[in-house]
Design brief:
3-stranded antiparallel beta sheet, 13 strands
C-alpha cells in the first residue's frame, strides 16, 4: 500500500518489499499506465478474501481517475502518467505494446470479475477497441496480415510488440461474454498474425518486436526484424490468446500452434536448472502453463 502514498494516489512504479517503501524511478516521477492498471484484479480479489475494502478502493480509485482524464485519442491512452499531478504525460503517443498494454486487457477482465456491472470499465474497453480499429489497424504485404501498429503525434509506425499478442485473447474473451461478434473475427485475424510472427522466423520463435511491410516488394516477407529486436523474452501472450481461441472456437489449429511454440522453446532455449534466471522462470510459470491448458 505505500505505493499509493502519492499526491495523486496514482501508485509509484517501484516497491521495496523488504523495507515496505515505494518510490518512482530515479529519472522521473512518472509511472507507466500499464503498471498502474495491471494490479486491479489481485487487489480486488484480496479485498474479497479479507473483507478489507482498502485494497479495492485504492485500485478502483486509479481506474475512476483515468476514466475522467483528458489526453485520450478515441479511447486510446498515452503510455505515462505522473504520480504528482495525476495527469497523462508524453501526450500524442499511442500503443498497445509496452507501457500501455495491460490497461486495455484488464479493463475487460475487471468488468467480468465484477459481474459485468461496472459500466465505466466496459465503456473504456469498448472505446479503446474502437480507437484501435480507427487508428492502429493495418494490413501487411504480401499476405495481408492484420496487425496493430503505433501512433506518435499523428504519424503511424508499422511496429508491433509481441506484447500486443494479448489482444486476440482479450477480444475473444469479450465476444464470449456478450460483446459484438466482430471482436471474435478480429481476434482470429490477429491470432494468425501472432502465429506468423513465429513461423516467419528461422527458429520459430517470435522476436520481441517486429515491423510489418506495408508495400509489396519482391522476396520480402510480411515480418521484418531489426537487429536490436532479434531476441525472445519467452513471453506468454500469444499462447494465452491461442488458449482462449481454442476454448471458444474448438479449432485444434490453436492447439497445434501452441505446441509448435513449446517445441521450439525446448529446442532453442532449454538450459540446465543451474543456469536459469528469472526470465525463463517466467515462461515456466506462464507460457508453459497456458501451453498445458491448450493440451486439454
Amino acid at each position: 500500500m505505500p505505493a499509493f502514498n502519492t499526491p495523486s494516489k496514482i501508485p509509484f512504479s517501484d516497491v521495496n518489499i523488504g523495507r515496505g517503501t515505494a518510490h518512482p524511478p530515479r529519472w522521473t516521477s512518472d509511472s507507466t499506465v500499464a503498471e498502474v492498471t495491471s494490479i486491479q484484479l489481485e487487489f480486488r480479489e484480496l479485498s474479497r478474501l479479507t473483507g478489507e475494502e482498502k485494497f479495492q478502493n485504492a485500485v478502483d480509485g486509479v481506474m475512476q481517475h483515468i476514466h475522467t482524464l483528458p489526453g485520450k485519442n478515441d479511447g486510446l491512452v498515452p503510455m505515462f502518467i505522473n504520480t504528482n499531478s495525476g495527469q497523462f504525460t508524453h501526450l500524442g503517443v499511442y500503443t498497445l505494446g509496452a507501457r500501455a498494454d495491460s490497461y486495455y486487457e484488464y479493463l475487460l477482465k475487471q468488468w467480468i470479475q465484477g459481474g459485468k456491472k461496472e459500466n465505466e470499465l466496459l465503456e473504456d474497453y469498448v472505446k479503446g477497441i474502437e480507437g484501435v480499429k480507427m487508428h492502429l489497424l493495418r494490413k501487411s504485404q504480401p499476405r495481408r496480415l492484420t496487425f496493430v501498429g503505433e501512433l506518435a503525434h499523428g504519424r503511424f509506425s508499422a511496429k508491433m510488440d509481441h506484447l500486443v499478442c494479448f489482444l486476440p485473447g482479450a477480444l475473444a474473451l469479450g465476444a464470449h461474454n456478450g460483446l459484438p461478434s466482430d471482436h471474435l473475427d478480429l481476434a482470429m485475424e490477429l491470432a494468425e498474425t501472432c502465429h506468423q510472427m513465429y513461423t516467419q522466423v528461422e527458429t520459430g520463435l517470435s522476436p520481441e518486436i517486429v515491423h510489418f511491410n506495408m508495400h509489396a516488394q519482391k522476396d520480402r516477407k510480411d515480418v521484418e526484424i531489426k537487429a536490436a529486436d532479434r531476441h525472445n523474452l519467452l513471453r506468454p501472450e500469444a499462447v494465452e490468446s491461442f488458449f482462449y481461441l481454442y476454448r471458444f472456437t474448438g479449432d485444434k489449429k490453436y492447439q497445434d500452434w501452441g505446441w509448435e511454440i513449446l517445441e521450439n522453446f525446448n529446442k532453442y532455449t532449454r538450459v540446465k536448472p543451474s543456469n536459469l534466471d528469472s526470465q525463463p522462470l517466467t515462461l515456466l510459470g506462464t507460457g508453459v502453463g497456458w501451453g498445458s491448458l491448450l493440451s486439454v
